[in-house]
Design brief:
Layout lengths: L2 E12 L2 E12 L3 E5 L6 H8 L7 E6 L2 E3 L11 E4 L11 H9 L10 H7 L15 H13 L5 E5 L7 H16 L3 E5 L3 H4 L5 E6 L2 E7 L1 H7 L2
Length: 226
């Protein structure tokens, strides 16, 4: 499969602290990559660099075959969906109102209608209560709908199962499996490896800012034996 993103000897410093240390790896189109590691290992920093929200201190980032020694080129950002650990939603607005607001940020590209984005994650767009009253699982799905509204090719998800019960997390996994089958590339971080195993093609483990291992996931191993 073609490469959708690549890091070449990427390091990121915060003062004297190295959050990433000479990381080199690439991500194929249509695959799901799960980033593992303890808190402070560099997982979120890698996602933010790929999203173009942070500049690498050293090294090169290539997204969709475009090079950016500093950050993701501006023209590529509409093709990337980034879901941070924080929900990035307005609690006083309904889910539909939230998505309508974010859709206005992508006026130069076709977006999903808010109702369609909400239905795609299993939410009822007719709900009018503010998202501040949603359960954690519903808030996470609304956050995912916000990411999907621009129809991105690359999904970057930071702890998408955070504070969710097992049932809600499994629903999220099922949704991500559907989106990946549409040839999107997914890169997510989690502390719950077992939850991500059904959709993981690769597990990447970071330790103290270094990429220490890359392992094929059960799904990719099963694919190889067909």
């Amino acid at each position: 499969m073609p490469s959708i993103a690549r890091l070449e000897n990427v390091s990121r410093l915060f003062g004297t602290f190295a959050a990433l240390r000479q990381v080199s790896t690439e991500f194929e189109a249509g695959r799901c990559y799960v980033l593992l590691g303890e808190n402070g290992a560099g997982k979120s920093t890698m996602l933010r660099i790929l999203a173009g929200l942070l500049h690498p201190s050293f090294g090169k980032v290539l997204i969709f075959s475009s090079s950016g020694a500093g950050s993701t080129p501006q023209l590529q950002r509409g093709r990337i969906g980034y879901m941070s650990h924080a929900p990035m939603l307005y609690d006083e607005l309904s889910a539909t109102e939230n998505l309508a607001y974010f859709a206005n940020l992508y006026r130069d590209q076709p977006c999903l209608a808010p109702a369609d984005a909400l239905r795609s994650v299993g939410l009822d767009p007719s709900l009018t209560r503010p998202v501040g009253q949603y359960s954690q699982g519903m808030r996470q799905r609304t956050s995912l709908a916000r990411v999907l509204i621009s129809q991105p090719e690359l999904l970057l998800l930071d702890e998408p199962f955070s504070n969710m019960d097992v049932g809600s997390a499994r629903q999220m996994i099922s949704l991500l499996a559907q989106f990946r089958s549409g040839h999107r590339t997914i890169l997510l971080t989690t502390h719950q490896r077992e939850l991500a195993e059904p959709i993981a093609d690769y597990f990447l483990t970071l330790q103290s800012g270094r990429l220490v291992s890359t392992q094929e996931g059960p799904r990719l191993l099963a694919e190889a034996h067909r």
